[in-house]
Amino acid sequence: xxxxxxxxxxxxxxxxxxxxxxxxxxxxxxxxxxxxxxxxxxxxxxxxxxxxxxxxxxxxxxxxxxxxxxxxxxxxxxxxxxxxxxxxxxxxxxxxxxxxxxxxxxxxxxxxxxxxxxxxxxxxxxxxxxxxxxxxxxxxxxxxxxxxxxxxxxxxxxxxxxxxxxxxxxxxxxxxxxxxxxxxxxxxxxxxxxxxxxxxxxxxxxxxxxxxxxxxxxxxxxxxxxxxxxxxxxxxxxxxxxxxxxxxxxxxxxxxxxxxxxxxxxxxxxxxxxxxxxxxxxxxxxxxxxxxxxxxxxxxxxxxxxxxxxxxxxxxxxxxxxxxxxxxxxxxxxxxxx
Amino acid sequence: xxxxxxxxxxxxxxxxxxxxxxxxxxxxxxxxxxxxxxxxxxxxxxxxxxxxxxxxxxxxxxxxxxxxxxxxxxxxxxxxxxxxxxxxxxxxxxxxxxxxxxxxxxxxxxxxxxxxxxxxxxxxxxxxxxxxxxxxxxxxxxxxxxxxxxxxxxxxxxxxxxxxxxxxxxxxxxxxxxxxxxxxxxxxxxxxxxxxxxxxxxxxxxxxxxxxxxxxxxxxxxxxxxxxxxxxxxxxxxxxxxxxxxxxxxxxxxxxxxxxxxxxxxxxxxxxxxxxxxxxxxxxxxxxxxxxxxxxxxxxxxxxxxxxxxxxxxxxxxxxxxxxxxxxxxxxxxxxxxxxxxxxxxxxxxxxxxxxxxxxxxxxxxxxxxxxxxxxxxxxxxxxxxxxxxxxxxxxxxxxxxxxxxxxxxxxxxxxxxxxxxxxxxx
Lengths: 338, 427
Description:
Chain A is mostly helical. Chain A has helices at residues 3-19, 31-63, 80-87, 89-122, 127-139, 142-153, 159-166, 178-207, 210-218, 223-234, 236-251, 255-260, 279-289, 293-319, 329-337, and strands at 66-67, 75-76. Chain A is globular, with a radius of gyration of 27 Å. Chain A starts with a helix and ends with a helix. Chain B folds into two domains: 30-147 and 304-350, D-Maltodextrin-Binding Protein, domain 2 (3-Layer(aba) Sandwich); 150-300 and 363-424, D-Maltodextrin-Binding Protein, domain 2 (3-Layer(aba) Sandwich), CATH 3.40.190.10.
């Protein structure tokens, strides 16, 4: 029983008290005494949520107006953290890096996921094997894999550059060139999430009636035409879902650049020039490497704002067309009114 | 007896409440039992054998007290700060890395060791190391552990191929300063076209900085990080990069090991622990081929650590007894033979265990290089704001290595630092 039911029970009970007394003549218990077992039953989640969810969120608002090194007294400094944030070139660089890495990873990934899903959908043999194989990267340890891929991308002793040298294509500074660094991070992100998104697209594909495909075949469409003219348009809602989740994940990218470009002795993150510093990595550096917890909290709220903006954009995209709306027309009307 | 569901739930709730009780009430400020002195360290920071002895047989000189050590692992600083901010279940003693000055603004979190007559022990330890434990207000909040005096490591076999002397004394005479070191690097190219003398140019900067008599701030808090001496060090790093004598390996990347394993970097200036962290662990096959000599440009220190007693300690006197016992000259020798932690007490340098010849270094007595090097390190004023400035210079040098103009980089570094120091309220 949820909290809502318990609350509803309370109002019913209150009404009952005034309207008609219980048949046995005893006075009914007040609401909380009658329903405490239900409250107790649902409390563990709310207690944990209060301690590890609500409190930290509230405290980070408080912290973002403070100067605090993590040990000593907090010192209120008003809007100073936010004022510094706006003029902090490292912060803006981290936003730029995050967006570039996000585009470099999301665009190829969504396309690849679709192609893989289409391939999986049309495979005849070893269906289950391929599905598991593509999903496995998503359940491996991201830290371990980034470490391994780190030695693949490594500039002078890496596998990738050895291969490039072998075909006389020259070296690429995968871990030192500003663009190549972002490509490296994006490549790891793609590797990890493409299978997951392919499975989601596959589920969407299977929901498309086979009649449409058969009709296309009868009309003489080839594979390419079927893919671009039928599969992609029919999958629009699924593609948007994938894009939305990738956006939220992409803006919070942390592990890959943190492991690929470890914090050095001086406390610098994100590799040479900080070219792979994402927003969350920057937050981590400010709060946990430089002990600027107040400023870290302010960065966190800036990120919140950014995600909120992107979510609104996404929501407008989804809500923009009737055929893509997930809910009914009635629900949509409601949300428009808001 | 079968446990009914109701009874099971009651038991569960009871034990949960019991478990939360002592931890949650917040009345216990110091971690551990009343007769336990608790110690938080990271891996390989103290002698495991000595600690085990204090854990089982008690702390020598502190009747009735035992030690309890926990290696709290990664993110050490964050965990320590969390415990101190929580003001409950704080360990008696914590390890502090070479960034001890970071704790100076919060010096009242720690016990002033002068209260126990620490000054009497001063003559046992290296002067520069001792002075790093003392805050500008004169409180001694930390006690010396190990140090990292620098030396010039080199592959004797590769130097021979290039026709360069392999005798430590002769080599040191040949490269007494950085210009000599650069010339040495160029000679190495005779037998190996791509030879380098450093992993990246930031490394040059940090080694050179460690050789100077002052860092970024004076004792009275004036910024001196824009002086000519530092500008020259900055340009020295750039020059070594321009000569092609830097491998350009990003910090923390596997390439740092790669250049050692492949022999591309046959020489390198590093702290005493560098030998263990790089050639000995990454290139064990090169054992016996390495030697050490006096470092070009003078000796310096990189790394090293401290122990501090928190103000929440249940018995600071017993904690002090433990620290002074663990870091006595004899026991520092033990820590060296067991864990390769280089002593901060020069009294230990003359001990036979320290003077043993080292097979990895072709039977050389490396103490003959690192001992004098440790004594020659200059006393430098460290500031709590160093942690703000160090990354700025390092980041700009990384930019220089990827092609940024060195003058622009220096100017940008100065501007960033000015901005950061104003923000921290330091200037």
